[in-house]
Amino acid sequence: MSLRHLLFAFGLGIFASLAAAQEGQTVRPEVGKPLQSAIDLLKGKKAKEALARAREAQSVPNKTPYESYLATRVVAQAAAAAGEPGVAAKAFEEVAGSASAADAERRQFAAAAAGQYYVAKEYAKAAELAARYIKLGGTDKSVHTIYVQALYLGNNFAAAAKAISADVEAEEDAGKTPAEEQLQLLANAYLQQRDTAGYAKALEKLVTYYPKRDYWLNLVHGIATRPGFSERLALDVARLKIETGTMRTGNEYLEAAQLSLIDGFPVEAARIIDKGYAAGLLGTGPEAGRHKRLKDMAAKSLAEDKKSLDADAAAAKEAKALFNEGFNLVLHGKSEQGLQMMESALRQGIAGKRPDHVRLQLAYAYHLAGQNQKAVQIFRTVQGTDGSGALARAWAIRLSRAS
Prior knowledge:
Helix content is 75%, strand content 0%. The protein contains 22 helices and no strands. The two termini are 40 Å apart. The chain is elongated and about 105 Å long. It has helices spanning 3-8, 11-23, 29-43, 47-58, 65-81, 85-96, 103-119, 123-135, 141-153, 157-173, 180-192, 196-209, 213-225, 234-244, 250-262, 266-278, 288-315, 319-331, 335-347, 355-368, 372-379, 388-402. By secondary structure, it is mainly alpha-helical.
């Protein structure tokens, strides 16, 4: 049932109740006549006149509980039709709690009250009545949507995030893809609470199902700016940015290339610079000369590196040198030999105090070698809280979609 149907689906039910009242409970003429007139006016789409007649019935003194129930019910319907959601909401809420209403009617009235409170922008009340509908056994998805949106719009972000997260998990368990708008709302609910961990998880969901550049941009930026992030991972962040197309400035390319040169990987530095030129972010503007100097430096270092590549690899004995030379071989396209050296270094205990960073680099090397399935397996073993775990999860998402 749509929100519109929730708001206006009760006119015929009112008429039926009045007919039933003649057979059972007594409705005095001074109450029944204006109510019947109001119903006729509603059927003729004269909502404002109907509301006036319903209020006449409501103003009759000493009404029985059943008369009060019927009068309030007609007021609720007429007010909803007349565009007075605040009046309609209160009336629907009242009849939802009436002893004269059947169980199924209580659910419907609670749903209608939730919808009218939502239209009136009384979001706390809308969430309250939608929750009551659900507690009474209601299962209509549109009411659940009102509940979630009312929580969010009422600034109850923690409750909204909890509800949306449960919905997302249920859809995933059922093999369904959560709606993009639903995941956006979840991300925003966490963001409003300054819950960086929750926000990151929501972004991971977004890039999993809707891998748009903006979502990747926000995710990678969040990883690099999260408290506790290790600057040691700056080059790893740049590698993910290049993979996801989220490099934005020439300086980002320059810094990444410089870091790669410092680490002893001129072939990677040269490729990063080439990508910056191809993107139009290097080689232009007032810094073009600086860009050219770094490009020449990388080319010179690469030429020297190629000359000594095999000799350096053969001479590497200590675990760290073995690992780095192996990675360099992978960068140069000698993947089989390079990966063997990196794995050997891992067995020798290179991981030490930084096992997550080492596995992050090893997984990346397998990706460069075209072995994405193996890369994903290793990425999923990285659990570091210094940013390495978050980077690894992002890589696993990216490569799982690509494979």
